[in-house]
Amino acid sequence: MNEIELGGTGLRAPQLGFGCSALLGRTGRADSIRALDAAWDEGIRFFDTARSYGYGESEALLGEFLRGRRAQAVVATKFGILPARQPGWKQAAKSAARGVLAVAPWMHSTLRRGAGSQFTANQFTVAVLEESMAASLRKLETDYVDVLFLHAAPASVLEQDDLLAAMSRLVEQGKVRVAGLSAAPEVVELALDRRIHALRAMQFPGNVLNLDAAVRIAQRSTGESLLVANQPFAGTAGIRECREKLRQLATSERLTVELRAKLDPRDDTAFADAVLNTIVRGTGIHVAIAAMMRPEHIRANARAVRDSRFSADEIAQVRGALVTGEHR
Question: Residue 147 phi/psi, 5° resolution?
Answer without folding.
Answer: -135, 135
